[in-house]
Amino acid sequence: MSAASTDTRDAARRPGASGASRIALRALHLLLLPLVLIGAWWLASAVTGLYYLPTPGEIAATFVEVWGAERLAADVLPSIGRLIGGFTLGSVLGVALGVVLGLSARLRAVLEPVLEFFRAIPPPVLVPLLMLFMGVNTTMKLAVIVSGCIWPILLNTIEGVRAVDPVLIDTCRCYGVRGRRWLTTLVLRSASPQIMAGMRQGLSIAIILMVISEMFASSSGLGYTIIQFQRSFAIPEMWSGILLLGLLGFGLSVLFGLAERRVLYWYNGVRAAARGE
Amino acid sequence: MLDVTGLQKIYPGQQGEVEALRDLTFDLGEGELACLVGPSGCGKTTLLKCIAGLMRPSSGSVVLAGTSVTGPPPDMAVVFQEYGRSLFPWLRVRDNVELPLKEKKLPKQRRRELSDEALDAVGLLKSADAYPWQLSGGMQQRVAIARAIAYEPRVLLMDEPFAAVDAQTRADLEDLIRTLWKRFSMTVLFVTHDIDEAVYLGERVLVMSSSPTIIQDDVTIDLPDERDQINTRGEHRFAELRTRIYAEIRNASQSATAQPQEAGKAH
């Protein structure tokens, strides 16, 4: 380990390091820790021989077997669909409500204590309640996801809208920028760093709630499938489902990061300029 | 063109009211370039905000071309002191300049003509596709000036626009303002705390007293029309005008602080 890290540092300092070797080093940087962890797991499961702890090899083999085209269509895609639907709905509602509240101090004064209360309720406890009201269906699952992921988006949007620079507000007034253009060019763009931060939190909450809503009450979906495997002691299958969820979350986070880089290109530029780069 | 009559602004405060502006009356003719100079804290920005329609005066009136100003008038542009904060960092330079023109519902081609002309006039046509934060402070203020010019205002207000740029850039920008003023025939009201700048730029200098503020003097700057950073500032007449205004501002701030000083001597 220590030898590897010394090599890396030397290579970074060496100006003539060729492109190929730099790419190889970068790959090593990214993969080293995952490989070590998988190795440690392998060792642990091989040594202990625990029934509940299959080897990574078994899990990988099961993964390929279990998550074929059929399950993908029956369980994975509906889950992802509900996740994206709920997250989109939560984002639209959160931003819309956040803009209204951010612009009106009077509304904020009335609504903020109530919002704080609702925010404090852990969303999973709403599942039994929403089941009673809505039944066991897609609407209920969307409602659960929205009820959880809306809060960071709403509260961050309020903060972002309140923090719009007064000089820019005066500038817009002087140049007659109002109405829709005022909203989109001034308010939403100005609040976009906070909105994106809220959406990032909201996304991870949405994934959690997607799984939970399916564990409680469902006949399909990732959460449902994992619980079924656990109940039937299909241990490697259960692990492969957990792995799939992890990969899904990771993939979505990468996609979100790419979108964020585009939307906040200006913001990163301003910050870099302020640091004198 | 611009008539300011009996303007007064009182801010409500926790320890009673604060009278920032007491009684300001002056008028600017069409196409005039006037500088407004006064000691710090005399309410220059308050006055400018009242003229721009961003703030309601407590009493008195501002009339622009026969119309009373109650909100931002459509043919007035403002350049703010905080250039870094008055440009939209998420818009490229050209989009910053064209944003007000979109709101004016000008067709795309006309917007392009106006932004080209304005950016060219401030020497930034090449930077049209840059973001403001990629430019230096002086260049950012030029973008703000280009945006104001492209708006085709009849009156241009400038609130200490060069207070935060370095000396060389400042000299360049001062000359730019005179050039633009002649080329685009606008009425310009330029607020500054810098007496040299006021004398160098203006056809006329309005001297404000310290708070509560009145117009203390109205000085006509009888320097030749063509001004030059080295020769104009070296002229005898420039020094005379500068000394006169400097003395007035010093008197103004001394009379404002006279009472506490007297009290100090008594001990």
TrEMBL record, chain B:
<dbReference type="InterPro" id="IPR050166">
    <property type="entry name" value="ABC_transporter_ATP-bind"/>
</dbReference>
<keyword id="KW-0067">ATP-binding</keyword>
<keyword id="KW-0813">Transport</keyword>
<dbReference type="InterPro" id="IPR003593">
    <property type="entry name" value="AAA+_ATPase"/>
</dbReference>
<feature type="domain" description="ABC transporter">
    <location>
        <begin position="2"/>
        <end position="235"/>
    </location>
</feature>
<dbReference type="InterPro" id="IPR003439">
    <property type="entry name" value="ABC_transporter-like_ATP-bd"/>
</dbReference>
<keyword id="KW-0547">Nucleotide-binding</keyword>
<dbReference type="InterPro" id="IPR027417">
    <property type="entry name" value="P-loop_NTPase"/>
</dbReference>
<dbReference type="Pfam" id="PF00005">
    <property type="entry name" value="ABC_tran"/>
</dbReference>
<dbReference type="GO" id="GO:0005524">
    <property type="term" value="F:ATP binding"/>
</dbReference>
<dbReference type="GO" id="GO:0016887">
    <property type="term" value="F:ATP hydrolysis activity"/>
</dbReference>
<protein>
    <submittedName>
        <fullName>ABC transporter</fullName>
    </submittedName>
</protein>
<dbReference type="InterPro" id="IPR017871">
    <property type="entry name" value="ABC_transporter-like_CS"/>
</dbReference>
